[in-house]
Amino acid sequence: MQKIDKAGKREHRARVMLCISMIIFGTLGLFTRNIPVSSGELALYRAILAAILIGVFLIIGRRWSGLRAAKKELPLLFASGAAMGINWILLFQAYRYTTVSIATLSYYFAPVIVTLTCPILFRERLTKKQWVCFIMSTLGLILIIGVGSPSGGRSDLTGILFGLGAACFYAAVILLNKFIRQVGGIQRTFLQFLAAIIVLIPYVVCTGGSSLGKLNTVAWISLLAVGLIHTGITYCMYFTALKELKGQETAILSYLDPLVAVLVSVVVLHEKLTLLQAIGGILILGFTLWNELGTEET
After folding, report:
1. What pLDDT score does 117 carry?
2. Which of 5, 12, 23, 162 would suit a FRET pair with 152, their CA atoms being 20 to 30 Å apart?
């Protein structure tokens, strides 16, 4: 009974940690609104702050041993880290051109991209259910874009395209991680952050350099929150929770992120979300979630 109770407590604690991490992720757009630096700079500072914090976590927790297995998979780790950095740049650009809710919903098209790519990379057969999820999620994306609707401006369309670009690179991170099997979650993320830093430094230097001197108090607090809380602490909580929870439960709880992002956008930032866009978001989130909850064998 004690073993069952301990396991139950661990699962409950992991469930709470995952919920908190997803809620924090959902407020990312709110904080980035207050940081007047380029998207490349913001991505770089986020990676640096998070790498420092996770590095300290690995030292204190004596988890450096997991890094020894990384030598054979360094090319994959570097590629996934580079994709992660580009993904952040595009997502931050999406926030600048459109609302947080539309950018986030466009970004959550990533699982659909993964579903379509897996048959090519892993020779997996798409089931009828996956085809339905793909078609309905694509319909949802069309509603968000607002094809034929005068309500969607050029700025919104640009933001959506940046969001979809971010989704493509996030899908690349997911797919590359499938080939990385020797390195644990937190150690893998630490190395990916280092790779992102290596890629982002020359990009930032070539596109204008640093503008940290222009930040005011609110901007500094927001930047530290994005790097340390939204990335460093939250990633540690996320990967710690994953060890104790089943895949389906993780998939369900992960959708707190876009739901919180939409609420923050509409309620806190007072950004508009039309009825058709809301329906489109429900279609994307609903059918991608259904797809992640298992596939049929037909």
Report:
1. 85
2. 23
